[in-house]
Design brief:
Elements (H helix, E strand, L loop, with lengths): L2 H26 L7 E5 L5 E5 L1 H28 L3 H6 L1 H30 L7 H20 L20 H28 L3 H27 L13
Antiparallel strand pairs: 1-2
Helix pairs in contact: 1-2, 1-4, 2-4, 4-5, 5-6, 5-7, 6-7
Pfam families: DUF1648, SdpI
Protein name: DUF1648 domain-containing protein
InterPro entries: DUF1648 (IPR012867), SdpI (IPR026272), SdpI/YhfL (IPR025962)
Length: about 240
């Protein structure tokens, strides 16, 4: 097993263990009978109730998703025809992998805290939501920092027909994308503490979406100006 894959799996196992422990702690605090909050507004106030079984299913969802994501990330370099390039850019790959696991864990713990507070009659307020959004924003800053260090692959990075057919287009696109995602993450981090209402929930998604769209569009023009873009062959079948 490649060292960076082993590192990713170890971090994933630790984070999933924390999620499972948080889930067990939360379930142990649930009342034996009566409706239990299962959905909350941005200020932490319950706006939908369900059964104990529904809560158990909801709080099992994130650890399961984390395990699936980890499995995909572990096998992706072996399945990618350009997996050797992922090996070369393994620092970027493992940084994003660990970052995703940490954010999922923080989000899960935050959800547990919101539920426990609601059960105790003390709504958590928007602080936990702000913390989760701020954590996601920092993840995009880290991703942006590492994107220029990636190499062409089918599993990781800004994968368009143009970046995958030209190494020069890949490099130029990821230099720009790295800056854009760092800016989006930085602005999203600030927005997590100054925005309110629906804008608190939407601002980071809007910033990241804009960074992604600009990167994709730019990749075409980078390809057009590249010296190594694939012109195809004259072979016929």
């Amino acid at each position: 097993m490649k060292p960076y894959i082993r590192t990713g799996l170890i971090w994933s196992a630790l984070m999933i263990a924390v999620m499972v422990a948080s889930t067990v702690w939360t379930l142990s605090a649930l009342p034996a009978e009566g409706p239990i909050p299962v959905h909350f507004s941005l200020d932490g106030t319950p706006n939908r109730y369900g059964t104990r079984l529904e809560v158990m299913l909801v709080f099992s969802f994130v650890p399961v998703i984390a395990a699936i994501v980890s499995a995909i990330l572990a096998v992706a370099p072996s399945l990618d025809p350009r997996g050797a390039n992922i090996d070369v850019g393994s620092k970027a790959y493992i940084a994003v992998w660990i970052g995703v696991m940490i954010v999922l864990t923080l989000a899960h713990i935050g959800a547990c805290m919101v539920l426990i507070n609601a059960i105790n009659g003390t709504p958590a307020g928007p602080g936990i939501v702000r913390g989760i959004i701020a954590g996601c924003a920092l993840l995009f800053v880290a991703m942006g920092n590492y994107l220029p260090k990636t190499r062409p692959s089918f599993m990781f990075g800004v994968r368009t027909p143009w970046t995958l057919s030209s190494d020069m287009a890949w490099e130029k696109t990821h230099r720009l994308a790295g800056r854009l995602f760092m800016i989006a993450g930085g602005l999203g981090f600030i927005g997590a503490f100054v925005m309110n209402g629906i804008w608190l929930a939407l601002q980071l998604s809007a910033l990241v979406f804009a960074a992604a769209i600009i990167s994709v569009v730019y990749s075409y023009f980078a390809w057009r100006g590249a010296d190594d873009h694939d012109e195809g062959t004259s072979l016929t079948v």
